[in-house]
Amino acid sequence: MARAGRRAAQRLLVQGVIASTMQLVRQVRDGREAPVVRGLMLDRRRMLEEALETAPELPGSMRALQAAIVESDRTLEALLG
Asked: Tell me: the pLDDT tens digits for 33-55?
């Protein structure tokens, strides 16, 4: 895949990760069942992994996103019990 194509794919995946984070927040706020929320968390991690695979050099912004998702998952797990 050409560099521009990789970058475009990476951007779409990152946008998906961010959108899924917003969806997770709404689902938890609305009291969704833990299995539903955990399924969304798995989908988000899958998208993040795909985004990271498209950027083996792992720029700083991707490292920051990865760290934020890890912390978000910890917080969500604590909330879900």
From this structure: 999 999 999 999 999 988 888 76
Q: What is the pTM of this model?
A: 0.82
d(CA 44, CA 77): 14
Give the separation between CA 60 and CA 6, rounded to whole angstroms.
Answer: 17
Q: Percent of the chain having pLDDT more than 90?
A: 56
31: left (phi over 0), alpha (psi -120 to 50) or beta: left
N-to-C CA span, the chain: 42
SS (H, E, C) the chain: CCHHHHHHHHHHHHHHHHHHHHHHHHHHHCCCCHHHHHHHHHHHHHHHHHHHHCCCCCCHHHHHHHHHHHHHHHHHHHHHC
- 6-19 tens-digit pLDDT: 778 888 888 999 99
